[in-house]
């Protein structure tokens, strides 16, 4: 499959060959994408939610009233969950929400995400994501020429410092190196912009599965 390559000024810069194995999947599996996104978001959760258990509550542990003769129910402590100021029963505790997902499923999800952008016409191949000066207004003008309002840029091995500075104040624009490529960020942005070096790195990553 051939994809056109353009520059930041919207002029043409040739074409690049991409593998159908990575970018040409016809039947997009939404169930695979869902599994990978859920896996990513679960890993990101802090899991620091916590409530006081009965042994952590500072209220008195003294018996409220005598066992017999009151006509009321038998209680031994005001720390019990049914009382105001008491502890919570079966509340959340600090834990990890992460779960395992096979590497093959993760790789498959990434290939389906990339192919979905090709299929919807929402993938652009850029010659390079480099600017001479970190000027937000000039970069924004370039994005307008390309019709980019909500996009993820994958710039290659490293992100150009000037490009990163110029783009960081533009809303709905994310810039990541190739190592940061992930399914969630691909799907949350309307357009995926890959540089030629990023395409080569992605092709090399999946070369062993061809």
In short:
It holds the Pfam family Ribosomal_L4. Residues 48-81 are annotated as: Disordered. This protein has helices at 20-23, 30-44, 103-119, 136-146, 161-167, 183-188, 196-205, and strands at residues 2-6, 12-17, 123-126, 151-154, 173-176, 191-195.
- Report the radius of gyration as a whole number of Å: 27 Å
Output the helix-strand order: EEHHHEHEHEHEH
Helix percent band = 25-40%
Give the second-level CATH assignment, the architecture. Answer: 3-Layer(aba) Sandwich
* Number of structurally distinct domains: 1
Averaged pLDDT, please? 92
Q: Regarding quaternary structure, how should these chains be classified?
A: single chain
Strand order of the largest sheet: 2-1-3-6-4-5
Poorly predicted residue ranges:
none
Structural class: alpha/beta
Briefly, what CATH class?
Alpha Beta
Approximate shape: elongated
Percent strand: 5-15%
Total DSSP helices? 7
The name of the CATH topology is: Ribosomal Protein L4, Chain: A
Number of strands: 6
How would you describe the overall organization of this protein?
This is Large ribosomal subunit protein uL4. Residues 48-81 are annotated as: Disordered. This protein is of the alpha/beta class and 210 residues long. The chain has one domain: Ribosomal protein L4/L1 (Ribosomal Protein L4, Chain: A, 3-Layer(aba) Sandwich). Helices cover 33% and strands 13% of the residues. The protein contains seven helices and six strands; from the N terminus they run E-E-H-H-H-E-H-E-H-E-H-E-H. The chain has helices at 20-23, 30-44, 103-119, 136-146, 161-167, 183-188, 196-205, and strands at residues 2-6, 12-17, 123-126, 151-154, 173-176, 191-195. It has a six-stranded mixed sheet. Strand 4 (151-154), helix 5 and strand 5 form a beta-alpha-beta unit. Helix 2 (30-44) packs across helix 3 (103-119) and helix 4 (136-146) packs across helix 5 (161-167). The two termini are 14 Å apart. The model has no long low-confidence stretch (mean pLDDT 92).
